[in-house]
Amino acid sequence: MAAYRAVLAVLRRTQSGFFGSAGLRRRSIAVQSFSVTSQPEAGAGSRCLIAQSRYGHFSRNVQTGAGVLWAAVAFSLFSSSEEDKRDEAQKKEDEMILLLKKAKLSIHRGQMQAASSFLHQAVALAHQTHNTQAIIYTYSQMANLAYVQGQLENAEKLFKAAMSFMLSGGTPEDDNAVIEMSLKLATIYAERNKAELAEHGFKFCTESLEAKLEKHKELSAEEQTEEAEALRKETRLLLGLCLDSRARYRASNLQLNHAREDYQGALNICRQEQGETHPQTLVLMSDLATILDLQGRHDEALVLIQQAVDLSRAAGHLEQHVLLGNMAGILLHTGRLEDSVRFYQEALSLAQQAGDQEAVHSIQEGLKEVKKRRSQSKEEAAG
Questions:
Q1: Which of 96, 138, 238, 354 could form an SS bridge with 123, CB 3.0 to 4.6 Å?
Q2: Would you call 35 helix, strand, or coil by DSSP?
Q3: What whole-number distance in Å separates Cα of residue 260 and Cα of residue 244?
Q4: What is the DSSP-derived secondary structure letter of residue 77?
Q5: What 3-state class would DSSP assign to 51?
Q6: Higher pLDDT, 19 or 2
């Protein structure tokens, strides 16, 4: 982990004025993670926790990278006053806020080039007004935008720029906002095949969060306030995100035992903090079942995915087709072809109703595999 701490030390000493360039290339990133977006912990009201969950496609390949755009933080980061008292600096801040809103809207519309242009203008104004929080926030948004466009080197530089301002401004290394950004860097290192930095990055994140949670246990009764409890939950959810991200990285490298341990840890956290029927709990149950299936532990995988499907049905979750498709795939691997077809067909119907074309394609591929297995069985029987 010394290598990663050396990176942090350099970032603390150096503030980068790098303005990343955004290209036109886009790529789809399968996401199966819960995201915790945090602002630095110092200062009342400065912390913002946003827990998100998405179902990725139920491919057998567990992909590295949680390419989720961070949710925009409240624009109350920037001060405002009565119109008749506004000075030139205030007008620049107002313009910056408008640019950030335009960037957010462009991202939602899929207009990435326009979003990049607005963010570049916003970060220039942030530098002109010496608004450090705005600089950090805008660099982070630029980094996320570069990441989802597949511009990993650019995203890495932008995340480092944001972190350099945070660390040089006195934000502790174990602040949740720093750790979350470190996790994104670790994910980028993994995708860029910088294995040593990726491993050290994941280790730094998990060990830092575990240490914070141990410190929380030592708080006296008087110190166990609502704010302390909110920070504990935020920290634990972020640990779950780290374990989930590292599990996907390890699974992509076929380190299945380690991946299983990380998925189990993430699942335990999600169950305890968000509940048995939370969508992310079901996603993690499905992910863990996938690993068990890959290890040939089909019966265990089937029990777990069946639990996820039953909970999803009972709760009426909208994306049941993802879990049903995964269950169909596991049934296929156990040789229960008729049951597999039945679940694939149910999943296909729900996916079509939901307009989930990626899932539709995956299910159709699964049905083709069933057909192939049937043909092979007939040939073997005839021979």
A1: 138
A2: strand
A3: 10
A4: G
A5: strand
A6: 2
Q: Between β-strands 51-53 and 34-36, what pairing exists: parallel, antiparallel or unpaired?
A: antiparallel
pTM: 0.75
Band of the pLDDT at 156, cuts 50, 70, 90? very high
Placement of tokens 């998990």 in the chain: 206
Distance CA 153, CA 135 (A): 20
The tokens describing 22, both together, are 């955004």
For residue 318, how many other CB atoms are within 10 A of its CB? 13
For domain 2-254, the question of CATH label 2.40.30.270 is answered with no
CA dist 55 and 257 (Å) reads 23
Continuous segment of H or E residues that includes residue 177: helix 176-191
Angle between helices 132-148 and 152-168 (to 10 degrees): 160
Which of the four pLDDT bands, split at 50, 70 and 90, describes residue 241?
very high
- Give the pLDDT mean for 48-69: 32
Closest by CA to 213, choosing from 265, 278, 140, 282, is: 265
CATH topology of domain 275-383: 1.25.40
CB atoms within 10 A of CB 8: 18
pLDDT at 115 over 90: yes
300 vs 12, 222, 281, 288, 327, CA distance in Å?
A: 47, 45, 17, 10, 12
Residue 219's contacts (CB-CB under 8 Å, 6 or more residues apart) are 228
By residue count, the chain amounts to 383
pLDDT at residue 46 in the model? 31
Every domain of the chain with CATH number 1.25.40.10 lies at 2-254, 275-383
Whole-angstrom Cα distance, residue 232 to residue 213? 7
